[in-house]
Design goal:
This protein is an all-beta fold and 171 residues long. The protein is 0% helix and 42% strand. It has no helices and 14 strands. The strands form 2 sheets. Strands 2, 3, 4, 6, 7, 9, 12, 13 and 14 form a 9-stranded antiparallel β-sheet that branches. The protein has a 5-stranded antiparallel β-sheet with strand order 5-8-1-10-11, with no helix packed on it. The two termini are 12 Å apart.
Length: 171
């Protein structure tokens, strides 16, 4: 998967807010994807959700489909994505990246930096990459508060930092 360019997908299941500082670093350059109430124009929307800007965040709190995604219009090979997010205690959400097919987002054809505190099997819960790298034990919790994710994909190396703590560093 690491030799191609891929879109980033941000998943919404219940209520996830992306803050004003979601940005991509690649090749020593920075691309701001979301800046305050601006940013939706950088994404294609998959699924039916009420994505909108409010209080310096991009958010959706109603979804007519099981899943709704924001897919970056631009493709990135190697990147560092820094974002802030708020998730409800029962949210099943995440950030998908290096997706093989941006029209069909799954944990089988993308990497998913998970945000899922109440996952029945916490092995790949919050802080892990589903089916690739297990969450630390005990699994970190993200629900009911603002959090930061720093996601780096550099060739075959994948790193997740959740709230300043490295939860995944694999090659």
């Amino acid at each position: 998967m690491h030799n191609r360019l891929f879109n980033l997908a941000l998943l919404l299941v219940l209520a996830v807010n992306l803050s004003a500082c979601a940005s991509i670093n690649h090749d020593s350059k920075s691309t701001v994807l979301i800046d305050g109430n601006r940013g939706l124009e950088a994404f294609n929307q998959i699924g039916e959700a009420n994505w909108h800007a409010d209080a310096n965040a991009i958010q959706a709190d109603i979804s007519k489909t099981t899943y709704a995604y924001l897919i970056s219009k631009k493709q990135y090979k190697n990147f560092r994505l820094k974002l802030e997010f708020w998730a409800s205690d029962d949210a099943n959400s995440g950030v998908f990246f290096r997706c093989q097919d941006p029209q069909n987002i799954t944990a089988e054809n993308c990497y998913e930096a998970n945000i899922f505190d109440q996952r029945a099997d916490p092995s790949y819960g919050t802080g892990g990459i589903v089916l690739v790298a297990k969450s630390p034990s005990p699994m970190p919790k993200a629900g009911g508060r603002w959090n930061t994710y720093d996601i780096t994909a550099n060739d075959s190396r994948l790193t997740l930092v959740l709230n300043g703590v490295t939860t995944v560093d694999i090659e």
